[in-house]
Write a structure and sequence with these properties.
The protein has 200 residues and is an all-beta fold. The chain has one domain. The chain contains no helices and 13 strands. Strands 2, 3, 4, 5, 6, 7, 8, 9, 10, 11, 12 and 13 form a 12-stranded mixed sheet that branches. Strand 2 and strand 3 form a beta hairpin.
């Protein structure tokens, strides 16, 4: 199974599929953590499991900011990403949804396998919202190159908004989802804005 780099963010995010591409080869598992410090291109983090790590941030590291959004922010034409689980009727049940800022439209477009934060495997779908139905949450038709999926979004599913960010977002205490590169540096970082914890 291919894993994918949201962002995610879905997520991401990210949450992430914040930085994902469906044709990526196997990517190292995303790391969910909080920032201890950031100095001289070195990011010191504490993972959810309590491990302390140092990660190099390079000029190629993609940084995205995530903040809380609502179901009402998802409209026809929105570009979204969602980690989801397949249902018996062929639909996908969202675990989280990321709404992308307009300049990020097209990020990670497609449908592919994804490992969730709890270690279960599901799928990630990034695409443009077409038809939208409101009943017990929302059911979205998510269209991407080569296909479309019906995504059921319950009322209690977290929704995040992702936008471009820079190194100034890497503040002590911020919650992140970090995507390691093969050389151990940070390929991408999804950062929770104003204390927000990225879903998944």
């Amino acid at each position: 199974m291919k894993t994918a780099l949201s962002t995610t963010f879905g997520m991401f995010l990210a949450g992430s599929a914040l930085l994902a591409h469906a044709d990526d080869a196997a990517i190292k598992k995303p790391v969910r953590a909080s920032i201890d410090s950031f100095q001289n291109d070195t990011l010191m983090i504490t993972t959810r499991a309590g491990a302390h790590q140092s990660i190099k941030v390079t000029d190629q590291t993609a940084i995205r900011s995530l903040s809380k959004a609502n179901l009402e922010d998802i409209k026809p034409g929105s570009f979204v990403g969602s980690a989801a689980m397949p249902q018996p009727d062929g639909t996908l049940k969202a675990l989280e949804v990321t709404v992308f800022e307009a300049s990020l439209k097209g990020s990670g477009e497609g449908h592919y396998g994804w490992e969730n934060a709890d270690g279960t495997t599901g799928s990630m779908t990034n695409g443009t919202v077409g038809a939208l139905k409101k009943a017990n949450g929302r059911t979205l038709t998510v269209q991407y190159k080569g296909g479309e999926k019906q995504l059921v979004v319950p009322d209690d599913v977290p929704v995040a908004y992702v936008e471009p960010a820079d190194r100034s977002a890497l503040k002590a205490g911020a919650k992140i989802v970090l995507f390691p590169a093969d050389d151990g540096s940070a390929r991408g970082i999804a950062v929770g804005k104003d204390g927000y914890t990225p879903p998944q």
